[in-house]
Amino acid sequence: MPELPEVEITARLLDRALAGAEIESALAPGINALKTVDPPLSSLAGRHIERVRRRGKHLIVQVSGGLALLIHLMSAGRLQLYDRRAGPRDRTSRLLVRLCDGRELRLREFGSKQAAWVKLLRGDELEHDPALASLGPEAWPGPLPLEQLLDAPRPLHSLLRDQHTIAGIGRSWVDEILWSAMLSPFKRGEELDEEERERLAEAIVAAIERALAHYEQAVQLPIPDKLPMPLQVHRHEGQQCPRCASTLKSVHFEDYVIAYCPACQTEGRTLKDRRLSRLLR
């Protein structure tokens, strides 16, 4: 799933390329993707794109006249800009915003779930939309009031991925952040002392800024279907820890995997079977 760094670089690149562009027309080939009917997509014709920005994992395309497209990519969506318009064989596009200069902004989605969505909202509706109103404070650029946000009897791995607690972090980057902070994914928020909270706050900012610096150098338009994520721990289970050279371990759940270093994060302990073993602290 695209997370804060991936959505942020998408917003930056599109904002640079689209500012002032005039919209010719808009349509939604993926009928399930469009979640609003008033105002209609046809009301975008003749308006200009003013800004593309991010809130949490959401993209916001602000349009002249007080309209905005609110977009969530979910697990397999991408918002991409092309010099040519989609052909008749295109099966991945959920939203097409055609520009007067011949370019086309496409919300594309891969796989069969079709979970990505878009809403066309008026300016006064945007910040009150439930998708944004329920979000916690931004994970970046900070600073985060961790003493308030993490005072909960929940494992850090799930707590940091809770968008109502902190907006923007997902399964990929939470592994990187907790590894950088040398904290167990299963340690509970309420158990962190002051020094650990400071380490965690610094790790959140450092991991995201490292990713963004990498993307600024490695990614150009059109944004690739798969971004070159600079991951050191996530998806690297079985390989050597970049810090201590121990073997990275993992915990498998139904639809995701937690990667961690036992030596760096869990005092050498390994959770061999989540159904039979006691959760690490």
Write the layout of secondary structure elements.
Blueprint: H1 4-18, E1 23-27, E2 49-55, E3 58-63, E4 67-72, E5 77-82, E6 93-99, E7 104-109, E8 117-122, H2 123-126, H3 130-133, H4 146-149, H5 156-161, H6 171-181, H7 194-218, E9 249-252, E10 257-260, H8 262-265
Antiparallel strand pairs: 1-6, 2-3, 3-4, 4-8, 5-7, 6-7, 9-10
Helix pairs in contact: 1-7, 6-7
Show unreliable segments.
275-281
Give the class from helix and strand content and strand pairing. alpha+beta
Largest pleated sheet: 4 strands, antiparallel
Alpha carbon gyration radius: 20 Å
Please bin the fraction of helical residues: 25-40%
Terminus-to-terminus distance? 27 Å
Strand content: 15-25%
Major sheet strand order: 1-6-7-5
Order of helices and strands: HEEEEEEEEHHHHHHEEH
Task: Characterize the overall form.
Answer: elongated
How many strands in all?
10
Q: How many separate helices?
A: 8
**Would you tell me the overall average pLDDT?**
92
